[in-house]
Amino acid sequence: MTIQIYDLAAANSEVRFSPFCWRVKLALAFKGLKFESIPIRFVEKNRIAFSGQKLLPVLVDNEKVIVDSWDIARYLDKFYPTESNLLLENQSKLLNYYTQLSVQPLILKMVILDIFNCIDVGDRDYFRTSREARFGNSLELIKIPAEQGILLLQQVLQPIRLILQEQPFLGGNTPDYQDFIAASPLLMTRFVSSLQFFEPTDPIFIWLEKILDLYGGLARNSPTIYSKEI
Ligand SMILES: N[C@@H](CCC(=O)N[C@@H](CS)C(=O)NCC(=O)O)C(=O)O
After folding, report:
1. Does residue 229 sit within a domain?
2. Can you tell me the distance from the alpha carbon of 86 to that of 76, in angstroms, rounded to the nearest whole number?
3. By CB count within 10 A, which of 16, 32, 104, 218 is most buried?
4. How far is the CA of 3 from the centre of ligand 1 (A)?
């Protein structure tokens, strides 16, 4: 059976914006694995109750159910080893935490109202209540103005920029899971917002363009809230 990934969806279920789901979809494509992506809304957690927890992504591979993006990447390396390189050839747990704890919350605060506006109306109370509890303020006050956020982001992404000045991907000449981790919150913004974060000459911009084109344009061809055809 094709691998299934349960993936967080916007009101338009073709629009998928979850950074944790994106890194796993890129990891599956890295492995050359076909997968079916199943849309789930915030208030539809009963549909992933079989996984014993409430977060996405959830990966189902025949009878196996794996949760947590890091554990999914480890699972893929173990059960679908690739000859040339592994997803986690360069262990990137530090990057995993740095992205999750320092980069992603900043980006989330910049686009939090965009996310609120693009999710299903039935998801909005849950999203508002859970995020207001997490950040201790109203969504409107959590939101960081674009200019301020971009300045902060420039600083927080500087270590990544320095590496990308020296090599095309964080993984070296070819991408690996480090790239998918670091790119995933930036990819999220593309699906929900029109905010431009980087100058076209910025190594991070150039790298993101390459990530968008990977695996037949998996991310580039994925619908955004602006896609006309959906
Ligand atoms: N550590 C988990 C985090 C997963 C996570 O936080 N997923 C978010 C989507 S980006 C989620 O499911 N949120 C649902 C909710 O907040 O109710 C992983 O790496 O997979």
Report:
1. no
2. 9
3. 16
4. 19
Average pLDDT (133-155) is: 97
Domain of 42, CATH number, reads 3.40.30.10
Average pLDDT of the chain is 95
pLDDT of residue 91: 77
Residue 207 lies in a domain: yes
Please give the Cα distance from 216 to 218 (Å, whole number): 6
111 with 67, same domain: the answer is: no
69 and 111 housed in the same domain? no
Domain range for 37 is 3-79
- Is residue 131 over pLDDT 60? yes
Residue 153 vs residues 18, 110, 161, 180: alpha-carbon distances, Å: 19, 10, 11, 18
Q: In the chain, which ranges are E strands?
A: 3-8, 35-40, 58-61, 64-67
Q: What is the pLDDT of residue 89?
A: 75
One domain for residues 109 and 189: yes
Q: How do residues 72-107 score in pLDDT, each as one tens digit?
A: 999 999 999 987 767 887 778 899 999 999 999 999
Backbone angles phi, psi at 12, to 5 degrees: -80, 110
Cα-to-centroid distance, 108 and ligand 1 (Å):
13
The pocket around ligand 1, CB under 6 angstroms, is made up of 8, 18-20, 42, 54-57, 68-70, 130
Q: Is the pLDDT at 51 greater than 70, yes or no? A: yes
Nearest protein CA to atom 17 of ligand 1, as residue: 42
Same domain, 49 and 115: no
184, 176 contact by CB (below 8 A) = no
